[in-house]
Amino acid sequence: MSSANRVLFDAPGPRGRRRIRTLTVASVAVLAIIVAAALKQLGDHGQLAAYRWQAFTTVPYLRVLGEGLWGTLKATGMSAVLAFPLGALLALMRLSRRRPVRMLAVGYIEVFRSIPLLLLIYAFLLALPRYGVNLPVFWKLVVPIVMVMSAIIAEVFRAGILALDRGQSEAAEAIGFRYWQAMRLVILPQATRLVLPSLIAQLVTVLKESTLGYAVSYPELMKQGDFLTARTHLLFQTFVIVAVIYVVINFLLGRLASLVERRLSRRTGGAGPRATQDTQLANAPNAGLAPTA
Amino acid sequence: MHLIINHFGFLMQGVLYTLGLTAIGFVGALLLGTVLAVCRVGPITPLRVIGSAYVEFFRNIPLLSLLVLFIFGLPDAGVTIPLFASAAICLALSASAFACEAMRGGINSVSVGQAEAARAIGLSFVEVLRFVVLPQAFRAMVQPLVNVFIGVLLSSALAAAVGVAELTNRTQQLNLKYAEAVVCFLFAGAVYLLIALAGGTVGSRLERMLAIKR
What number is the ipTM of this complex? Predict the structure, then answer.
């Protein structure tokens, strides 16, 4: 809660307090009614029956979902490991002093930030095999994700490098470092530390994009849930549980990003771009602030 | 190439569906996001809690998971909504969380002195927001909201995976029937790029119009 919020409604007088109290009671009542109606609707259709949910505590079901979760983590991990360095490289290319390199990077970034991931996946799934490029299913998912995420990560890194104090690069030049030496030894380590919270937040995006394994039949969590429902017809339960798993994992990743940001800002005294939801990364769009897959 | 010309009407209908999904999703996200932002900065605690919970949930759930839950899971609970409407609703719900955060960021960027001065001359909570804070916050919100728009555009393609006949879906259908794959996908990619560029241009023009002339 920022001080602006505290100022928007400072200490209310007696009438204000009464108004707030009535609105509080009214909103709680309305919410209770909505929740009750939803539960009643579910109950009427037998969706709250114990046997439907208990099935998910048995080992076979848990194993299917567990395999799916493992598939998701594998795809996310591989995509992140490939996309982050590629993104850093693209950011450096975009900041290059040579015009063709810069134009190439700008072109790649602008194009791959503006096309949907699913389109790219369908292209890999259906179009490329006809021209002989038939990758295994895992790579049909990972390569498109890497292509799109590297463009987004490039913007994150670029914002980090640009946010770094110019004195750093000037000092590096002053002690005789050439461009690449300065980059490698002075700029990049500090820039990476600066954007680390943002990168963790982007992991959330990568994880959300891994759900597109559904479209390529790669056995990640979404696909395994689908497979489960085909056999058990417990559609509502399966998809609710899958959704809850995703929300919990992403929420924990988001908390990790906040923790890292807080630790880092304590050390650097608050300088540099911010990553999590309470603040904004000024030059890097999509830093967890825009919906993607 | 002639494949695209022959099926131009078919593809254009897909573009219309995409634009429809994007428009409804974005407008819905703006409206819901405004309500949520007001809930989150307001004095009523249950509303703040619900607002925060809503935003956390819809920022962390993958859109495909939400779509599948809505379209395949809800009929089990007796709620059957037509396909296009449920896709649009899911898009709006998911993007509203990001829109709310963008607006809250904009509101928080207005300096505290503005709100203090507004309180000092006796404006109520709603009046402070309406006459002082939101007009200034709007300037800071434009760029993030453009990002939300582009996000909605790209997310609308996900509806193709659940069966909505928008551009990506139709491109895939054409590709399954004929052999000229790459041209179809290049065309679809170009359309998305154009719409995203248009959104970005509108955003920068808006930002320039709202910029403080010093």
Answer: 0.86
Distances (CA, A) of A258 to A116, A278, A293, B110: 28, 9, 22, 23
Cα distances from A133 to residues A44, A123, A126, A139, in angstroms, run 51, 11, 10, 11
Residue type for position A198: S
**Residue B92: helix, strand or coil by DSSP?**
helix
CB contact under 8 A, B181 and A123: yes
Higher local confidence (pLDDT), B5 or B97: B97
User: Which of chain A's residues have a Cβ under 8 Å away from the Cβ of B110?
Assistant: 4
What predicted TM-score, i.e. pTM, was given to this entire model? Answer: 0.87
Give residue-wise pLDDT tens across range A188-217. 888 888 888 889 989 999 999 999 988 888
Residues contacting A226, CB < 8 A, separation 6+: A214, B68
3-state secondary structure of B164: coil
pLDDT confidence tier of residue A234, bands split at 50, 70 and 90: confident
Is the minimum CB–CB distance between A114 and chain B shorter than 8 Å?
Answer: yes
Domain count, chain B: 1
Q: Which of residues 132-191 of A touch B (CB under 8 A)?
A: none
Could you report the per-residue pLDDT of B41-66, keeping only the tens digit for each?
Answer: 888 888 899 999 999 999 999 999 99
d(CA A147, CA A117): 9
Give residue B75's domain range.
Answer: 2-210
**CATH no. for residue B127?**
1.10.3720.10
- List Cα–Cα distances, B106 to B140, B148, B186, in angstroms: 5, 14, 37
CA–CA separation, B51 and B39 (whole Å): 6
A227 CB near a chain B CB, below 8 Å?
A: no
Q: Among partner residues B77, B116, B181, which is closest to A127 by beta-carbon distance?
A: B181
The chain A residue lying nearest B177, using CA atoms, is A126
Chain A hits for B172, Cβ within 8 Å: 122, 126
Of the listed ranges A182-186, A232-236, B129-133, B150-154, the least confidently predicted one is A232-236
∠ Cα B106 B46 B91 (to 5°): 55
Q: Which CATH superfamily is domain A13-40+58-268 in?
A: MetI-like (1.10.3720.10)
Chain A residues whose CB is inside 8 A of the B69 CB are 236, 239-240, 242-243
Contacts of residue A80, defined as CB under 8 A and 6 or more positions apart, other chains included, come to A149, A203, A206
pLDDT in tens, A112-143: 999 999 999 988 888 787 777 788 888 889 99
Q: Which residue has the higher pLDDT, B87 or B73?
A: B87
